[in-house]
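hey can u run this one w/ thymidine-5'-diphosphate bound, need the structure tokens asap thx
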Amino acid sequence: MTGGLFISFEGIDGVGKSTQLDLLVQFLNEQGRKVCRTLEPGGTDLGREIRELLLHRKGEVAPRAEALLFAADRAHHVATVVRPALERNEVVVTDRYLDSSVAYQGSGRDLGFEQVRNLSLFAVDGLLPDLTVLLDLDAEKAVARRNKTGAEPDRLERAKTEFFESARQAYLKMAADEPKRWLVIDAELSVEEMQKIIRARVQELLG
Ligand code: TYD
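ok here u go:
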């Protein structure tokens, strides 16, 4: 159906996803590949408005409303950015995708793994990544890393450590259930070591 390669990065907040994403995009560019670097939530104009609602709006957002807003962002993102880029044979690298919803809303918010997975699959009309890189780190360590940056936490980042530990366990379960799609990396490794593992797997997929 599609000719490109679709890669997603996952992990709880504070594990260092964007650094690894930057380095992978640099590697792909150096190889002369056309790359579409994107993110959820907020990979489109509509998505940036939804992102504001999700992360910076004052007041409560009911858990099911939160799940539906992430799904709406994703549906529009896949239809208008991800699929068209794959059809142009590009390598799509996204900072978060549907597994974030299963981990954060399904497990963290307790809405149910299967229900949120099904909602997410509906949003993307079944499109799964060829590779999902999980940067795995203990929730306490991830929270400590985030606090060190001094950045103001957004609405989701203000959740308790247990919320992130629950999301982390959901990620590990998904990775164990679908080992072909997932590459689990210990986020306590050095930036260089992590990147080496990621590049090796991506190179294999590109052939
Ligand atoms: P992200 O953009 O990775 O955070 P930041 O730019 O602040 O580092 O993600 C925003 C937050 O949204 C993050 O806490 C994870 C959360 N999230 C969900 O809860 N469900 C989802 O489906 C997605 C995509 C993100």
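The mean pLDDT is 96. anyway lmk if its weird
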